[in-house]
């Protein structure tokens, strides 16, 4: 069951559900209010998981750069 990224409640997925797309992902919302909140600032709601992945990738890239530098 999809989760409303704004308020965190579970949303039933259906053809009449309120949804928005961001970076190829579909997000479901309990209300228009949550959707407009999401649309105003999708990055801060969308993707906790995606952001963490990006941070992790950045970190490992930084470590690799660090290893290449002479001490
Ligand atoms: Zn909501």
UniProtKB/TrEMBL annotation:
<feature type="region of interest" description="Disordered">
    <location>
        <begin position="41"/>
        <end position="71"/>
    </location>
</feature>
<dbReference type="InterPro" id="IPR009078">
    <property type="entry name" value="Ferritin-like_SF"/>
</dbReference>
<dbReference type="InterPro" id="IPR012348">
    <property type="entry name" value="RNR-like"/>
</dbReference>
<dbReference type="Pfam" id="PF04945">
    <property type="entry name" value="YHS"/>
</dbReference>
<dbReference type="InterPro" id="IPR011017">
    <property type="entry name" value="TRASH_dom"/>
</dbReference>
<feature type="compositionally biased region" description="Basic and acidic residues">
    <location>
        <begin position="51"/>
        <end position="71"/>
    </location>
</feature>
<dbReference type="GO" id="GO:0016491">
    <property type="term" value="F:oxidoreductase activity"/>
</dbReference>
<protein>
    <submittedName>
        <fullName>YHS domain-containing protein</fullName>
    </submittedName>
</protein>
<dbReference type="InterPro" id="IPR007029">
    <property type="entry name" value="YHS_dom"/>
</dbReference>
<feature type="domain" description="TRASH">
    <location>
        <begin position="4"/>
        <end position="42"/>
    </location>
</feature>
